[in-house]
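[Help] Beginner question about ligand-bound structures

Sorry if this is basic. My supervisor gave me a protein sequence and a SMILES string for zinc ion and asked me to "get the holo structure". I don't really know what that means in practice or what format the answer should be in. Inputs are pasted below exactly as I got them.
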Amino acid sequence: MSFWALVEKGKPLQAWEHLAEPSGANTVRVQVAGCGLCHTDIGFMFSEVPTRKALPVVLGHEISGTVLDGPLAGQQVLVPAVMPCGQCAACRAGYERTCPHQIMPGNDVHGGFGPWIEVPQSALVPLPQMISPTELAQFAVIADAVTTPLQAIHNLGLATHDVAIVIGCGGVGSFACLLAKARGAFVIAMDIDDNKLEKMKGLGIDETLNTRGLSFKDIKGFVKSVCQKNDWPAFGHRILETSGSKIGQETAFGLLSMAARMAVVGFTLDKVEVRLSNLMAFDAQVIGNWGASPSIYPEAIEIALTGALHLDQMTRLEPLQNINSIIENVHHHGTDRRVVFTP
Ligand SMILES: [Zn+2]
Ligand SMILES: [Zn+2]
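Answer (accepted):
No worries, everyone starts somewhere. Holo just means with the ligand present. The predicted complex, written as structure tokens, is below.
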């Protein structure tokens, strides 16, 4: 069975039969059950964004599996996409997401596009109950596509009967919608793809809007009218920008009103022009989060175990050996489900 490494940017991943990597102290091997394909992986392959570890690097940072060695052997686990050291000043001060010693698989160390991965044992998140191999593979997406928006929802202080507005219903955005719904919020989903919006509607999201071609005034008018129609609050809206696009960020910022909060979840190198003083005038906030804290994971797993994330409809399992053709396809045509590779 092969590991799949990025050897040269812009080229397909290359199969490696062996990983010649010395094992570190306190690390264990986890047999990979599933490893999700994230836009960050595609970015490492096709954009100028570099991996922190010099190439070649086995990509993949959304990993679930079963521990192979040590005292946890046999335990089903998630491997967090960002693993803080837990010891440094930043970690001890509660800023573990910014830990300068953090390890991200498929970036700082070899990742999950292979039969197994070696990770610090202390970073693993055990599942509270045994689940089937298929479910375990689907649970891989929790390690990034689910926990990252859940962290944003925590940072926003999203509560029951708040209005949540999610901009962009791709992988992370669609989970943001379902997580907000699971919290009892009223959810408005926006995207430029009717299929994604239909899917969200089918999974119980309250209101959807295709923003393609709409003026900002139209979008704002839509939010106002659905809040009036449904008797939802007109203040304190919680906005999650997950599209990682300039227009999405501008729209999200523009939707800030009284006591609103906005989470920047998506990433773009583009700059936007906004009137920052709106934050002061509206008593509003904009918050970002780099991944999720380890403390978020048990809650994310609990929500997934209730079925509220519809992982069977939100993910598609694909054989790892087809990785290059599938990445090629997702890169050019996108995907309606989060792809999870299974070795
Ligand atoms: Zn990712
Ligand atoms: Zn640290």
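A couple of things worth pointing out: The longest helix spans residues 216-230. The chain is about 30% helix and 20% strand. Feel free to follow up in the thread.
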